[in-house]
Amino acid sequence: MSYRIPEALIGEENARLDSAHAEDYAALGRRLGRAGVDIETITAKVAAFAVAVPTWGVGTGGTRFARFPGPGEPRGVFEKLEDCATIHQLTRATPACSPHFPWDKVDDYRELSERAAALGVGFDAVNSNTFQDQPGQPLSYKFGSLAHSQKAVRDQAVAHNVECIEIGEKLGSKALTVWIADGSNFPGQSNLSRVLDFYLESMTEVYACLADDWRVFLEHKLYEPAFYSTVISDWGTSLMAAQALGPKAHCLVDLGHHAANVNIEQIVSRLIRAGRLAGFHFNDSKYGDDDLDTGSIDPFRLFLVFNELVDASARDAPGFNPAYMLDQSHNVTDPIESLMVSAMEAQRAYAQALIVDREALAAAQADNDVMIAHHILKAGFVADVSPILAEARLRGAGAIDPIAVYRASNYRKVKTKERPAVASSSSGIV
Ligand code: LRH
Ligand code: MN
After folding, report:
1. From ligand 1's centre to the CA of 234, what distance in Å?
2. Is 205 exposed, middle or buried (0-12, 13-18, 19+ CB in 10 A)?
3. Whose CA is closest to 69, among 77, 78, 58?
4. Radius of gyration of the chain measured on its C-alpha atoms
5. Which atom of ligand 1 is closest in space to residue 131's alpha carbon?
6. Which pLDDT tens digit goes with each residue over 171-210?
7. Ligand 1, atom 11: closest residue by C-alpha
8. What CA–CA distance (Å, rounded) separates 397 from 402?
9. Are 414 and 3 in contact (CB under 8 A)?
């Protein structure tokens, strides 16, 4: 039987922190109360907030230069599920994981589904992969996949996406995320309009295989691995494609997939208005698609994104049903610690956005009282909502301090014994 962190250890650690936490929570409750905010309402919403963990994120990530695997790495999807379950056990914020195929391919998906259920985790959107060639694959994706110039390659990519839907149905997933690397490195290498035609032709076949209660998430990305043009490069192209495909197609926003200084919260606002916001791949970045930990570089930007989400939910925006996922690469930290902190940082941005006085903000905006409007919004961001996040975890039988419990559990040390290292890729994101 593989090691799981004993619930008793969580209880012991919480007992150590409980009275200080109770004091902080009560003090915050009084302070928010003076501002007319009921802390219990916020805590309940935060406790219901869920963000999915990427199965590819629990292993050490890398870059094109190198990958430095850590000890006790998961060697396959069953061990990845264990680590996803540990993140949820301590944070109570990640009840589902998002698998990637063929990286998580197995022979028996019933066994995988049953193991996940036994570990207390479910499956969010499944991710297809036509950005790498698999051993024995008849046709290469070197020059593209769903938008490739040759029909045979497009058909191969369509078949893979349809297979991902079939796997997802076995796992209880309700969405397929499609990110393609298709693009070009030289002007003239591809016809910029024909490649979108090819993409839409291919995606129409994939779309036709979606069950009534399924959605397809189109993920745009400005560049990389293509460095001159990318077929689905921005939210505008993604929205055009979603509207061309049909009501089950939505646009997924990966925070790292935009040019520097782009106003991502405004893109979110536009996609909400179009009723086509699929949801997010949360991460952070300073330069490109750095896939750094959520909230680690620019937590104010994350807050501004959640401000749009809370605003949309407050006005009951039509078709507003975003899926939240993390998509990060952990090159220098323990992936479990990074994913726990990242899930909590998403919760933090959500809680901060929830305490913004929206009525006063709308009044100041109507009066063009710029300073007061900015101040009202910023007041949410500067509030330390940590006691609310800890209380939500505590009420979910999670840990007041997940990192402290994780380290006290020696989980990584034990897994290092349970999981003798296997030869793995010396570079690349996984
Ligand atoms: C592309 C991306 C996509 C995943 C991959 C692992 O950059 O964000 O969402 O398939 O990372
Ligand atoms: Mn992504």
Report:
1. 14
2. middle
3. 58
4. 22
5. 10
6. 999 999 999 999 999 999 999 999 999 999 999 999 999 9
7. 327
8. 11
9. yes
